[in-house]
From TrEMBL:
<keyword id="KW-0175">Coiled coil</keyword>
<feature type="coiled-coil region">
    <location>
        <begin position="701"/>
        <end position="728"/>
    </location>
</feature>
<dbReference type="Pfam" id="PF03133">
    <property type="entry name" value="TTL"/>
</dbReference>
<protein>
    <recommendedName>
        <fullName>Tubulin--tyrosine ligase-like protein 9</fullName>
    </recommendedName>
</protein>
<dbReference type="InterPro" id="IPR004344">
    <property type="entry name" value="TTL/TTLL_fam"/>
</dbReference>
Amino acid sequence: MEFVSNSTRNSFKLYPNSMLNSTFGELNVTTNQLVFNENIVIPSKNEKYYYKSRIRTGLTPRIERRGISVESQTGDGEAISPRTSIPCKDYKSHTGLLDQGIHIRKINISLKNETREKLKTYLQKKQKEGKNIGNSKEILTELPDPAISFRDSFLIIQKSKISIFELQARRKRKCRSSLKRVEAPIITEIPKIHRKNLQKVEKVPVKDAIRDKEWTSRSKPQITKSFNTQMNRSNGLAIEIPTDSFFYYKYYLGKGNNSNLIKQCLSTRWWWIRVNEEEIHNANLVWTQWKDKKTLESLPKLLVNHEIDSKLAVTITTNARYHSPQSHTRPKLVDITSLGYNLITRSKSFITLKPSQYKSAEMRMHNKIEHNFHLANKKALFYNMKSYYEILGEDVFNVLPLTFHVKSYDDPVFLDFERSYKFYEESVDDQGKKPANMWIVKPGENSNRGNGIIVCANIEQVKNELEGNPHLKTGKHTFIIQKYIERPFLVNKRKFDIRCFGLVTCFNSCLQGYFYSEGYLRTASKQFTLQATNKFIHLTNDAVQKYSDDYGKFENGNKMSYNDFQRYLDNHCERSVNFIEEILPQIKNIIKRTYEAVFLKIDPNVRGHSFEVFGYDFLLDSDLKPWLLEVNTNPCLELSSPHLVRIIPSMLENAFRIALDPVFQEPSSHFKRPAGMGIGDIPENKFELVFHSLNDGEMLKEKLENKRVFDAKEIEELSEEADELQEEDEDDI
């Protein structure tokens, strides 16, 4: 059998002896090694030996060998000793093999500079002497002395040099040293790997590399592809991208709530085109201010049994190296951790699933979740959170202000409210003074833009509000009576609340919840006081404050960034407080709890597919403790201040990179695909994954399924109330 390596000058043949009773099989020979796959010689009835060797020719003077012992009854191999390398200058030193009872001896080297014809003559001469070489096409040779037992020999021809090696099995050599060899133990389990303290690879900060257009053009496609892949894997999606050179995804865009901003975001994705209302049934994306009931009902109901593929965290990286023009060193890797992609792929909630096949050209998506009222409806949010916290054994009124849902003046729950009102009326503060006993009354349904919200200083005002049902703007509804937080933390003696954003995706029957790390403060126009119930003092909604004469007098658009607020804390707070590290994590945890409370209810029909951006409103008390006020299904996207001009478009772009881009990817074969798509800034990710229904939700599923908050009739009523609110809002537009 002839073997030729990458270098033709290193080819050689191997000739086994056929006369001996040997079980040598096919021989795999490469340039630098001689390997016997089934090289078995029989030193005794109870023991067999394999011999696996790497015998290098005169080019390299090293020998590696490995001994293997095999039980003759089973034929299964078991390692006796680890692979070792014994340097030697010739082929006579085989100490390691002698310990295993195997001897190798170089017999002769002859016929230097002889041709193949001379080799034939040499072997034919041996045959005429009475030696049986065999009938195979290969030329066979034998041992010089076949009487010696347990032997086999090999003739190796490299170029015109002939080397004959002899393999002889003998009894194991006893150790003559006073130090006895210790038999290697049989490994029954994998030992723990102790990693060496490897030297850290120096990386360049991404803020330095991102200035280089050449590096950006190479790294951006890699980062985008890697992120899209991981997002699809977390939803159990395997996306087939259309190959048609003239294919476009279609989107329908409804009116209202700064639809021009949505159009602007989608216009940067050249593979999308807008369609009118007549083609809404063919649109891959339907974006509306409120739920489009027909679109949701047209989405298919999915029945998918998911199997978790991995729970390991994944790091988004790029192998594009950056070379600083001012440095003479080699190009270095770039650390892209600060881009924020690990907020998702290295989250504790992140998992990957076995994929289901989908064609993106046939997929449809709506920006509203079917039963979003479980979060956005004040009454439903209260009941869902109350039920969930009861399961956890915690008090929901450590997160929500004390709340009562009252259907009418005669409702028994109103008696509970009266008892609470009386308790606060009789209480005194630390200084022995009677505090104000203020309550805020909100419509349980049909509330938007601050409509129907009243601040009441006494119980008579509460009763009058209940008796005034139906309200002129909100119609007939139930009421949420909530304790007013009478000691809020103030900014320049004015009240404020915090607007945060959450994203919920429902893809392929997987619900995932995200928290956006940036938000803003909405300030009141008037100085805070409990002596008046003026809306411009107590309600910070834009829809209310924009009618004040002092709107925009203190802050541009009555908005403050987190950094502005931190500076205020540094200058005016008695203690040192870090808003990002101390307060924001509490807000994030509350938002996560809202996802956990409703994940089994918000998409009950498992529509394929939907997502939604929610607006969360929080209030800080004088101790800087956050309180959840409400959740909005239609958060304001108007750019009423320079800070919002920066944060709102970035938030929407980030949401599209999570919800749209992994599914509706840029077609690489499209004729209109611009060249150099990697050019441009690499976008940051500021959404953090805080909930995955198949990871975090599995532990809660059994408990929540047995806890019914609303019956079917109440859910239907809540859905109808949401539809009525939508129609009234569209009439105002």
